[in-house]
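call fold(seq) -> tokens
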Amino acid sequence: MTNETKKIDSATLSTHGKLAMFNEGLKKGLANGEAFTTLMDQLIDTTDGETLLTAAQKLANFKLDSAYVTFPHQYKNADYYLIFMSRLLSMHDDEQATLNTRAHSEALYHVFEALSDDYTFLYSVVAGENGGAYYREQTTGENLFYIHLERRLLRFNSTAFTNLFINKLLLKGTGVDQINTVLATLINFGHYLQDDFGFNVDFNILDVNNAARYELREANLNGEILDKLFVIAAQHDYMLRNSPNGHGAEIDLPGELVVDVFDAGTPEAAKWVLTVRDPEQRVSWFDILLHFDFIRDWYLANIDSLEIKADPLVFA
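ret:
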């Protein structure tokens, strides 16, 4: 074989190798796209909860594009949290949250029929090792809850609920019934995750369990703040009495409701908490804030001390 022949064979083999590599890259890229569409079929059509959750988990971390195949039209990873939430709600016949698509893009967001279109809700994925995502109202930037699909974890955020539903909505004219419609869907979502998948859910300020102890931001509450409650309650014909749980105060409200604010700590370390008791365990501290103006005024005026603490690991 001459040197010239060797050069031709070498060039031919090199070309073949490049073409084979290119073709293999296309195959893998297309196979990746097919795997994606299989997961999308499951997310869209399945009626099995675990299949739905698994598909959402995989899609939320899925990288669709490859070096050889790119898809110009695709959702963001955060959108699969929205689709999962919408599908789970629809499986339980809760249709209050409407899934919309922004014009000229595939970006998804929620709107609630009970609220104006000024308020839109979407997920924001957490970068880094922790993962998960926040369910955020886009106009105000309030993170209502944090969810982690793999760890099966859900945490509600008292600060965001107070800022959005009381300061931004209730105090500016939105009706309590409208707010409760949205709250019911969000609370139900937490219960569906808890009941269907065994999620660890902290309802925080929305917890209706009589055993729930809402921990106050200020561990050692200033006595003057309780004095203010005595005064404002008396102005509305309610009387406070000493808390049966120790240092603190208790107040009876209509509907056999009892609110108790007391120090549940030790002599060495104070830990002020708040409880709400009702016979049917259907009322949370947030419900009290929505329905009793004088208590809401007291709470908001002293929010730096009285604010209910949310999980510090996910809410700064």
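The longest helix spans residues 3-45.
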